[in-house]
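Annual report, structural modelling task.

Input specification for the 5-S-methyl-5-thio-alpha-D-ribofuranose complex:
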Amino acid sequence: MNTPDLYRPLTPEELGGRLSAVPVVAARVGEDPARWTVKEVGDGNLNLVFIVEGPVGTVIVKQALPYVRLVGDSWPLPLYRAYYENHALVRQAERDPGSVPEVYHFDEAQALIVMEFLSPHKILRRKLIDGEKVAGLGGFLGRFCARTAFRGSELSLKSADKKKDVGLFSGNVEIPAITEALVFTDPYYDAKMNHHTPGLDPVVADLRGNPHLKARAQRMLMKFASNTETMLHGDLHSGSIMSTDAESKVIDPEFVQYGPIGFDVGMLVANFLMAYFSQPAHREASALLSYQDWILTVIEEVLTAFEAEFRTLWSAERTGMLYPAALFEDQEQSSVEACSELLAEIRSDALGFCGIEMHRRTLSLAHNADFEDIGDETLKRRLETRNLLMGAELLLRAEEIGTNGMLLDLARQFNAKDVS
Ligand code: SR1
Ligand code: MG
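The model returned the following structure:
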């Protein structure tokens, strides 16, 4: 674990002096740090991120700060999250090769990871705001969720290995605590760090005044906190994905924890739905409909690819203690129905998590640029209202929205809703 007294946050000026002695970094960037160009580009909520460019090549250096960057040093946060992020990247690379940046070097004491520089990739959230399409996006993300979920669970892993891993990641306590509060709880009462667009007060009062809705959110929190089905990315939003026009990678798994399989898919779909609802503020009328339709297609592809890949892995890699062939195929009984029932439960969990994520990004501390970049406050309020109402529908009726067609129809209905 970390030795905090050795830790010092990097600055662009001294990064070369401190990292050029690391052979793998010198080999990737060049031996003479005087010829390196270093830029700090972190725009997330927690860490320092540097692009380090030299005569040989370019790398990314990500270093944890001992506090929440978004808030400042009044909110301390352990450096050891980098240790878990490194472990998560290693496992994701094994379970879905090529899906995450390659790690070149990890320094536990400095809480830093040196990794592959993705170029010409751009943060997906920004691409969605800018109206850019990414070929193969939904399929890639659906398969990523299925492969990491299936291969990180006791459907595939040996029980002893999985339980050991649950033990390892259970040390990462403060990070899940952020999600438990900011995502699952704070949106539903007047928590200290919350903020929302002023005109939303009546809608927010309705949500917070609904004990049934709050009980649903708490039930989902109980699953999130207590259910260790698989190793999650834990923060799979469009800011945790980098894409070119035809290739994507998943980054930033520092919110890794063991949790329910539906969580990552749900967060992902929520962020595409928020991109969808915010589009009227970012697109000319002539391009709006077709781009919104494209986002819905991506959502459908995520869910379809997730299910198809999960079924493929179920047939080909069900080597863990769960649903063993001894109970099904060896008895000449099909396990297809068991798989379908499990997938239906995962889907319903995912839609519940999805609704909660749509609420927290509008009501809690950490909002997203999809809505925050909207200057016209009246338009922002209207688009956020649609988002909040659909979020409530998903949370309350997750089990009933049994097909992707129903989900997309719902999105279209809320997008057309008169909320003036
Ligand atoms: C205090 S951290 C706020 C948010 O940033 C991260 O990206 C997670 O989404 C977290 O909820
Ligand atoms: Mg992040």
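DSSP finds 15 helices and twelve strands in the chain.
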